[in-house]
Amino acid sequence: MTESTAPLRTGDMPVPEFRENGRAVLEWIASYLETVGDRPVLPSVRPGDILSLLPATLPEKPEPFDAMLADFDDLIVPGITHWNHPSFFAYFPSCASGPGILGEWLAAALGVNAMLWRTSPAATELERRVLEWLAGLVGLPASFQGILYDTASVSTLHAVAAAREACGIPVREQGLAGLRPLNLYTSELAHSSVEKAAIALGIGSSNLRKIPIDDLGRMDADALAAAISRDRSEGRVPFCVVATIGTTSITSVDPVREIAGLCRTENLWLHVDAAYAGAAAALPEMRDRFDGWEQADSIVLNPHKWLFTPMDCSAFFTRRPEILRAAFALVPEYLKSGEDEDNLMDYGVQLGRRFRALKLWFILRYFGREGIQSRVREHIRMARHFAGWVDEHPDFERVAPAPFGTVCFRAAPGGFTEETLDGLNRRLLESVNETGECFLSHTRHRGQFCLRLSVGNIRTEERHVHDAWVLIQHTFRKILESTPQAGIGENLSD
Ligand SMILES: Cc1ncc(COP(=O)(O)O)c(C=O)c1O
């Protein structure tokens, strides 16, 4: 056997090379941000297209960085949905602002794991301070302590786990076997993450009560009270209510103050899901929509939705951090530090954690309270304009109020059955999105298929919202012209 004479490659990318490549990446990002609005929002690829272009085997030999950057441009970017596009109006927009990108970059460079205080004191302490700022920005009292998780789904999972801990049943030690069933309550419009939490935590989806909603999509508090009392009378154990401010489908707002009163009387944990809408609480004039949320035991608000923070970043606030800690703290010998400090690993499932606070710190400092307020306020203003255009148009209608920056609407010219209208609106959505000029999503509300336009991207200006409206009308007229009932859409105009 002959020994290889090839030089052994060890060590990182040499710093001079890093500097040069880093400049190229920075330049790429800057040009991308300048031109993202000129790209199609949605890529025109089919499932498997990108995969088929990627080599099936990993490279044996080192490859030059320029080749990677070129492939990134040629193979990856054409398959990207541009969440940073100013005409991204689908779901709830999530975008990467300049300071957020730069903060993310620095966090990656430091590469710290903020599991323990000593594994990066500044990461732990900055997270505490930044979340105090964020709580102050949205008007929450100082009694709320914050922690960052990756997503709202994970924040809600932790809320439900804390609620389970708070109800005094020794689930942590003994599991759920043999216990009376625990009941969790939320509305029919709650995000699916609530049900996932019930599944993951062994509550079981059949023990999740989806309380009916009223005409405006709000949880019916009387029905909630009745469900709790029925469950108690059957020997079950109600333990938690998840209310929503800004439901995913239509952004409706549950009567949180009333629900909080009930939770107090019934001794139930109240978690408020404000993952999307929470950012609007930065505006004094929007605070009425958050009435009572300060009485919640926990709240989730996602900076990666409407606070210009690159994925991922979900802020979880609780007035009872000691319960969360009691639910999760578990310190093996190899993680004992012997110091009297707060270790973030004690507040959740995960051990290792990214330095997410850095990007949020940059964003809050770079824009400041005023800068954030003016941007969120502008988004709400633009959405109201759009809602006004829909309201004025004889062939379109809104299907729900628009309390934040999201408008749910549909084309509804007279003379069509509900079934046909569903089909027409579906085609409208597909055709608009196929143009690549903007991206809208849909929902079904009270049985009707409808479109959702959500304004929340930091790069969106009024002209983008206006162009989307013109495109929607124009596309719908073309669809109508090609349907057998042509002629019904004569009211449609550009
Ligand atoms: C109200 C609400 N809660 C929770 C979530 C889940 O968010 P995440 O993707 O951060 O888990 C969403 C997502 O849109 C949402 O709208």
Report on the structure:
Helices cover 41% and strands 12% of the residues. The chain is built from 15 helices and eleven strands. Helix 10 links the parallel strand 4 (237-244) and strand 5. Helix 5 packs parallel to helix 13 and helix 13 crosses helix 15. Residues 486-494 have low confidence and may be disordered. Pyridoxal-5'-phosphate (PLP) binds next to helix 6.
User: Which strand order spans the largest sheet, edge to edge or round the barrel?
Assistant: 1-7-6-5-4-2-3
The bound ligands are: pyridoxal-5'-phosphate
Tally of contiguous helical segments: 15
Round the Cα radius of gyration to an integer and report it. 25 Å
Structural class: alpha/beta
Number of domains: 3
The CATH architecture of the largest domain can be given as 3-Layer(aba) Sandwich
| Shape, per Cα inertia axes | globular
Spans where pLDDT lies below 50 across 5 or more residues: 486-494
CATH superfamily of the largest domain: Type I PLP-dependent aspartate aminotransferase-like (Major domain)
Question: Largest sheet, described in full?
Answer: 7 strands, mixed
Q: What's the CATH class label of the largest domain?
A: Alpha Beta
Strand content: 5-15%
The helix fraction, in percent, is: 40-55%
Order of helices and strands: HHHHHEHHEHEHEHEEHEHHEEHEEH
End-to-end Cα distance: 78 Å
What's the rounded overall pLDDT mean?
95
